[in-house]
Amino acid sequence: MKNYDNVTIFDHPLIQHKIAILRNERTSTKEFRELVEEITTLMTYEALRDVPTVEVEVKTPLEVCEQKMVLDNSVAVVPILRAGLGMVNGIHTLFPSARVGHIGLYRDEETLEPKSYYCKLPCGIENKLVLVVDPMLATGGSACDAIDSLKKAGCKDIRLMSIIGAPEGVSRVAENHPDVKIYVSTLDRCLNDNAYILPGLGDAGDRLFGTK
Hints:
Helix content is 31%, strand content 31%. It is α/β, with parallel strands linked by helices and 212 residues long. The protein has one domain (7-209): Rossmann fold (3-Layer(aba) Sandwich). The protein is globular and about 65 Å long.
């Protein structure tokens, strides 16, 4: 995969350690869910390091000082249903007031392309930094469709965050949406004939919600 200016692949040993456990087929649903949240929190710390801030005046026990704080109501999270739901709490750990929208997409088993069935976004989302989340970035079809929907809603600062990415999906999103920053914890080898990521971790939704 060629290098893209809008793509960041994390290479942090703590994240890689957690992904190793996440991949393991013996990892329980409870532990899998907790790991997804923990990895998401670590990724969010980096992905939103330039979140909008304001200067406020704070009175310490010794004096008054100026201090930066995150601008209230400046961040929205949009999980791609259903697996993206597993990443929301990890973001709320750092940004508890972030509004949450939902975009529902399912994959046509014949064409492997996404089909939309639900979209509900917070009011004023066009004025927020929007973080689209989905644990697996496989073909990139669902991510592209979700970003298209957000752009139609007027969103300008959109970022995509996935835990595992395939070169095919990362390239597709990067080329179709060069203005969108893409954050992936690990870039895997490729997709198989059924568009599953290899080595991957199986179906993230099934493993998150115990439906495997």
